Amino acid sequence: MLVVCVRWSSSSLIQINAIELHGVPTVMVVDDLGSAANVFRREIAVTVRDRKAHLVGGGIGSLAAAAFMIRDGGMPGGNITIYEALPVLGGSLDAGGGPHDGYTFRGGRMLTTDNFECTWGLFKSIPSLFNPNKSVFEETVAFNEEFKSHSRARLVDRNRAIVDVSSMGFSMSNRMELLHLTMASEADLGTDRITDWLSEEFFTTTFWHMWATTFAFQPWHSAVEFRRYLHRFIKEFSRIETLAGVKRTVFTQFDSLVRPLQAWLADKGVHFQRGCVVTDFDLVSETGKLVVQTIKVKKAGTSETWDVAVGADDLVFFQNASMTDASSFGSMTHPPAQLTKQESGGWALWEKLAKDRPEFGNPAAFNGSIPESWWESFTVTLKDTRFFDQMEAFTGNTAGTGGLVTFRDSRWLMSVVLPHQPHFVNQPADIRVFWGYALHPDRIGDFVTKPMAECTGADILNELCGHLNFDRSVFAQAICIPCRMPYITSMFMPRAQMDRPLPVPKSSKNLAFVSQFVEIPDDVVFTVEYSVRVAQMAVYQLLGIDREIPPLLHYDKSLQVDFNAVVKAFK
After folding, report:
1. 349-364: per-residue pLDDT in tens?
2. What is the full DSSP assignment across 387-402?
């Protein structure tokens, strides 16, 4: 074992020597006379190979953090344990079900290759499960070269007519107020809502209908987050009507991103503890820094508990909350149950840690108003091709090339998307699967006389048929599974700067936060990139990795990109 012997005087460091000492990691401080009689000796972990890492939560943030510790930090995979309450990993990037009872996925995050610097930097290192000679990144790029996005029916009106979206629909007043918001500082915007900066007329524009449904914004959401999106995705501003910049994975993001990453981690020896809930951390203060000494664990669904000791040099990464917490699925005959954090307990640990510790954030800013943070999605499994055939004829897009089709005048503000088939790895050739969602599930439908929240899967299909003027028989062999997500856009809620903790709070020695509810400059939540970037920042800081994290590409500083956006705004 390597040991460091430091020889110094009162005024300056004189010499540093490395020695072996009985196989024990030791630091020896020797006075400038070289006296061996008075030495100060203490045991330390001198290499990362002696440290352990505990990751609470099995979402993409934790998986990415584990990968960065192995790839960039040199930590053995066997020293890393991931604790997850559910039977499967992946967090919000989920997928389940089957052809007989219906497939499910709560939703997919938008990807681009113009941005997502940390995500693609990671997945260039992860081999594809389906093309072993390619990385996940290479596989994704090749797939999108073959199936390019170019929507021909981005918006559909109440008469089932495809809306002309070549113009953003701005008045000069709309352009000026959007410019004013875009140029404001985050300090100026503070805890304001989008409605505090944009007029009522703005929310009737073609731009708003496309931008809001692409990114799931509501008028009452944070003006800061809206501004960040405008800057980060300024390239998408100029092509929002075609979604040409959007990239998709070959299969669901669970199959194409989570599973390959999980397989790579398992091959490296990472331990996965599923079906266990972390209920608390024992925190102590050492030299002014908070240190996690013990992790309290409970077996899900039982009263069995145990403690996990955290060593002096070990690390803890915590996924504080989840946007899909308290999700519930319905069926063709039942609407989803209306669950909250009280039933799920998903916010409890963050709330406990943040009490009297403002540097750990403020969960109440995000989970305090379900009516402002929820919506419903639905996954439809079809046992014939009739719906896909009619949609492709109507939109002019083959499945996988069109992106969202939004029913602009729908009271629910419903959208659907037909992905490339098969969308699931195990999907039979005669099965088709598509996904949809609605931003206003609290409102009574146009063709179903009750709110979406009270609708069964069959009711949702009736509503969709009404907007498309399709015969109901097109869904004769369909299975529609609705999903209620009470906190799905909670990250967009108005917030103060301190409401989200830093990846490694200044008061923390060995605890990091990796989630959508962590503060990093300029980047945007509700993306895979945010979770991956936070994870990389936290790992590099706690392990002291002297390596550049891929910087954000600021296309908003490009004269050409800005010019394209201005031209688009005036169309």
Report:
1. 999 999 999 999 999 9
2. HHHHHHHHHS--TTSS
